[in-house]
Amino acid sequence: MPFERDRPASSPPPDRAPGAAAGSLGSAAHEADPVLDQQAGIVTAASAAVSGHGGRAGAHASLPGVLADVPVAVLVIDQKAGSVVYANTAAVELAGNVHLPVDVDTWGASAGLTDLSGAPLASSSGPLSAVAQGRPVSGEAVRLSPRTSTEPERAGAADEFSDQLLWVTGFPLSQAGTEEQLSLVVFLQLDPPEEVDDPDAYLQALRERAVIATDITFTITDPRQPDNPLIWVNPSFTRVTGYEIEEAIGRNCRFLQGPATDPAAVAEIRAGLRARRTVTTTLLNYRKDGTAFWNQLSVSPVFDGAGDLVSFVGVQTDVTERVRVEREREVAFAAEQAARQEAELARAVAEQARTDAERAQREAERAQERLALMAEATSTLIATLDMTELLDRLARMCVPHLADWVYVTLLDEYGGIRDAVARHRDGREADLQEFTSLHVLHLPPMSPSRRSIATSQPVLLPEVTQEILEEAVTSPGARKAFRRLGGSSVLTVPMVARRRTLGAIALVRSSAGQAFTREDLELVEDLTGRAALAMDNVRLYQREHTVADTLQRSLLPVLPEIRGIEAAAHYVSASSAADVGGDFYDLLDLPDGSVGIVVGDVVGHDVAAAAAMGHLRGVLRACVWDAEDPDPGRVLARVDRLVQGLRVAPLATMVYARAIRPSSPGAPWQLHVANAGHPPMLLRAPDGEMRLLEGITGMLVGVATAIERDTVVLEVPPGSTLVAYTDGLIERPGADLDHGIAELRERLAAAPPGAGPRELCDAAVSGGLDHRDDVALIAVRFG
């Protein structure tokens, strides 16, 4: 209902929203409708909406124009008189030329209405009588039999096939106690089913069909609420406007207005609402989907028994077709032409937008493909540290995505050609090998790859002519191989990383219509830059790995073979850059026949720590080998003084044990042990029992001078195994060293009886390493 109440100056502007159709009258007539229950006294007080609150003239002034041409028969009944006071065109056709007002039974007899069995409708139980008495009829089937009409002319004109089924729906429009009490009745023609399995369900379906079929729209607003919002609409409102009930309730009806709604018609409605009088007009509204329709409506106030305004009721119908016929042809033609021009313009704009969208989509797809290629290149190329594998992966990424075949040239440290990799989409291994051996490994000065290497700039040859080929490829055999491989366009890009040219990549396309472009050049430059950086990382890794390997071989000795001794060692570096660190172990066959066993840990986990460890190990060996006093405590004291005096290492921990051979077979070994802040050694007896050599302590190396360290002497039975280790084996995040030592002790104790040093080393590291610190481990079994 497109009306609105006067708004305060501070209220927001009217809603503007177009709308589209489906709904019915039936909810207004259903006895159990919860909406009607909530609005009791509003829907049933709607006589004023029809009559204009007082006097039959109001009904005659508003209803005929609204209900005259709806496709269903509509009656308005005066409840007090029990008579029909209004009938639209379709209702007149049912009863013939019956002068109004007329009582409901007379009207029904004139129309020839009977119950389903053919008996006349009883005044006490018929649906017309029920509505006349103010009772709603949610749906009842009756029979229209013109042969039984009380009008002779109508009965004589009827034939035996003229009977019809009608569905009657009615509800009161007035509230008890008002001066005029009216009811509305709607007839809908139905076709009887040939066979019904569930009569109750069929009757309910008929009721719903009747409700949905009506074109009459009823709406109720509440002027007592801000902005006079809708508080009830019948389902026909949804069918006509397209707005669901929940989308309409709570909003002012102005949301149906649009840009072409006549302001004068809106002003007329607003004036009628201010004056609290019935207003009937026709104006242009908009459905939810944006389509316009002409709406003829009557808006009437509803007052309660005290005379207070409680609601406005609107009765409206879609009269678009009638208005369209009535409009002047010139205006319609002009509107049609304008609409056609707008449509053409919109079509042109849409076509241009579609073209632009397709172009943008193609560009986006190319950008997406480029990003995907770059992402794949990054993940693929950095996944290997082998140069040959890296070059092969680069070639496989280029063919066939970017070129028909490719060859990559790699330079050595002195700028000479070190290696070359080639790949063709069809294989062609023999031709590639011939071209590589004759040309790629001996690039002439004018070849595109050599020019890219010399200038660090790309070379783009959109077309390879005979002259260019003879100048760029000097070997006749290479030229023949090039022709067999196929080549019409060439693009070469230097591979530069960290201001160093590592080589060049050459891409070749065979088809004459697929020459390389500047866009291809940008893509290949991006790819080549990533490949060059990955190649340089491999080069640096290999160089550092070589250095680390050399250093490791010099710092981690091969355990010597010593009579009466069986030994094994294990080493893991925490450094991710090189397989060396600050932890070390050593086994010495001393000149006096004793055996030296040492494990140490220099602060740090890198090459610098490894170098410091090498110095410390050398100092220790010197002090042990040429010691006037071989006591381990005094040896460590001399090492401490030399380290601090020569500054050969930072802080370090160390444990040193000197094993003295037994004086006779079967006698125990004597073990002299001194400790400089290092984790305690473990001793495994021949029967597998574990012993922690605790209580042997001392200050770290490099802390202070003139520190005397104690030496503890132990007797070790033959077959016992001494295990010395660094703290990387027992440290765990969130746990103390005692817990780590206990776990190591359990792992060693769980080794099988008779397990040798190698098995014990494996058992020691079987619990997993944290890799946050270096690990050095040595196991020595005394025979």
UniProtKB/TrEMBL annotation:
Q: Keyword Ubl conjugation on this protein?
A: no
Extract the ranges annotated as region (Disordered): 1-29, 137-156
Q: What is this protein called?
A: SpoIIE family protein phosphatase
The UniProt entry's coiled-coil ranges are: 331-377
Residue limits of the PAC domain? 277-331
Q: Where is the PAS domain?
A: 227-252
Residue ranges with Low complexity bias: 17-29
Key words of the record = Coiled coil, Hydrolase
